[in-house]
Amino acid sequence: MPKIYFLDVTNRDGVQTAKLGLSKIEKTLINIYLNEMGIFQSEFGFPTTRHEQLYLQANLELARMGVLKPIRLSGWIRAMVSDVELSLKMVPDIRHLNLSISTSAQMINGKFRGRKSKNDVINDMTEAVKAAKKLGCESIGVNAEDASRTEIDFLIKFGKAAQSSGADRFRYCDTLGYDNPFTIYESCKHLAKTIEMPIEIHCHGDLGMAVANSLAGAKGSLDGGQDVYINTTVNGIGERAGNADLVAVILACLKSKEFAEKYELGDKINLSKAYNLANFASYAFGVPIPINQPGVGANAFAHASGIHADGVLKDPQNYELYGFEELGRGEPELVETGREICSGQYGGISGFSHIMGKMKEQICFQSKEEANEVLELVRYANVESHKPLVEDELLFIAKYPKIAKKLLTLTPLEN
Ligand SMILES: [Zn+2]
Q1: Ligand 1 center–CA 156 separation, angstroms
Q2: How far apart are alpha carbons 199 and 222 in whole angstroms?
Q3: Is the pLDDT of residue 187 over 90?
Q4: Whole-model pTM above 0.85?
């Protein structure tokens, strides 16, 4: 029976959102949280982008060390042989790629403007897939950008060509959030049946349906007999109106009417990490979680009206679909209301020792030099993120100073 997997694209689609961004350490922490949560794959960045190079290498090093395991780390590039070759040159250990190219008439005419025909699109993609295979990639996803506005016959031709060149998955991109649950179900079911390859569902929220469309697309692929990989981002952060929210999509798969009885997840998801992950991403992006966000919003388990409060106190199931404990919330949060010592780019050893002494996990430095080295890395991390580091970031730097150094190294315009 085909299964559902989650492929989070926060570190790719999330960070390319206008006005938002993450530091390389923040991106790394997101990968660590996703791994702890049991997410199958993180599209962790752009292997042809110079400033991503050391970050991507460092994260693959963390995978080898077992810190980022078993999550699969994949890069996103254009479906071009030159991008494939450059990726493997810049990040030689990368083994998973998603290759993207536009497929709709709108994009082919409006973007390529006569430089590429439909046949060129298929040809560029198949050549890129073959190059990735030849260079040792273990899994290759092929992204049909603007799939929802592409004629289905061309999508089938494109998908079949991808499959016969050695691609492993077909990404159906509802790039503009144009689909609705009824149309995406039909398209994905038809594609799954005819292409005979696992389908990725990539939805956007321009019409407020990213989560519903993801679920419907997933159902289409599963009913068509193929595994499905739902693309998500943490807190739905993504271009324009955003992507499908990771936690909401997981909840929809597990808690919505009759879905979990019929369809199975491929991995065991540890939902108890959800609250922490959502809050970290909110802090890192500088975007508050909406009060009514499913599962993780401040009001997701709040009751005020007499009838609801009375009902939920008698039996939570009267007015709650799932328990707050499942999402890892309910623990009291310590917020400093008095004197506060923060990490910063101009911080010194005394304040740093004070902060490290208050951690949930005690870190013992072997020497003064070692403590000073970690402090220096913390200063640099602060230069990049412009805000005090959270405990997990400080612990990460203290535990893996060499990796942290790599994540903080940027060398523009070096030949
Ligand atoms: Zn997207």
Answers
A1: 21
A2: 9
A3: yes
A4: yes
